[in-house]
Design brief:
Number of strands: 8
Strand order of the largest sheet: 1-2-3-4-5-6-7-8
Helix content: 40-55%
Order of helices and strands: HEHEHEHEHEHEHEHEHH
Number of helices: 10
Number of domains: 1
CATH topology: TIM Barrel
CATH class: Alpha Beta
Distance between the termini: 19 Å
Structural class: alpha/beta
């Protein structure tokens, strides 16, 4: 699967559910209206039934608008709502078993969260379609350890051949640094989801990422 086909705009919106943000449907409508083409649902607080219900709503919306939907942590829910894929962490079900869940679904995207070169290399060897690497910068959205920095991101990029999505503390002020390091895409949560105007915040990231991606495609 090609980079352009998988990542489109190069921006993944992490819909991190919590008390601080607007309803999922409203947030997704605003983001999609601003050009977001890839949404990832990450809900660490709701029960499985609520996550399933949210996923169904988001799937109907994303399908109608040509947007990719990835579900965090739950391969069964991703399969049930016919999402494009699932994203798993280091403590979740191994990739080979996730593939079995989707045995009858021909095209499925499996992403893996990684926090070191070793984890990134292992994820590729085990069959991940892409890896999320981070946190690149300090973040309060998720407890994923100390910031890894641009230098470590560059090392990961040099050691794997699958797409690398940078995540963690990415804001307008540093997104350019991440993309210049070679990241294929960026995943953004709080900088968009906790904004007073989600649509405007999303549009700013879409513009910044799209401009950088276009420049990279020309210079590569």
């Amino acid at each position: 699967m090609t980079y352009r086909g998988l990542y489109q705009s190069g921006l993944c919106l992490i819909m991190d559910r919590g008390d601080r943000i607007k309803p999922a449907f409203d947030s997704a409508v605003s983001a999609i209206g601003s050009g977001v083409k890839w949404i990832q649902l990450r809900d660490k607080t709701s029960d499985r039934l609520q996550i399933f219900k949210t996923s169904r709503v988001l799937r109907a919306l994303t399908l109608a608008n040509g947007v990719k939907l990835i579900i965090n942590d739950y391969p069964d829910i991703a399969l049930a709502v016919d999402a494009e894929g699932v994203h798993i962490g280091q403590d979740d079900m191994p990739i080979k078993y996730v593939r079995k869940v989707f045995a009858k679904k021909r095209h499925i995207i499996i992403g893996v969260s990684t926090h070191s070169v070793e984890e990134a290399v292992r994820a590729e060897e085990e069959g991940a379609d892409y890896i999320g690497f981070g946190p690149v910068f300090h973040t309060t959205t998720k407890d994923a350890g100390s910031p890894k920095g641009i230098e470590m991101l560059s090392k990961v990029l040099s050691q794997v051949s699958i797409p690398v999505v940078a995540i963690g503390g990415i804001v307008q002020e540093n997104v350019k640094l991440v993309l210049e390091a070679g990241a294929h895409a960026v995943a953004v949560a709080s900088a968009i989801m906790e904004s007073e105007d989600i649509g405007m915040a999303a549009a700013e990231f879409v513009d910044a990422v799209s401009n950088r991606i276009s420049t990279n495609l020309v210079t590569r």
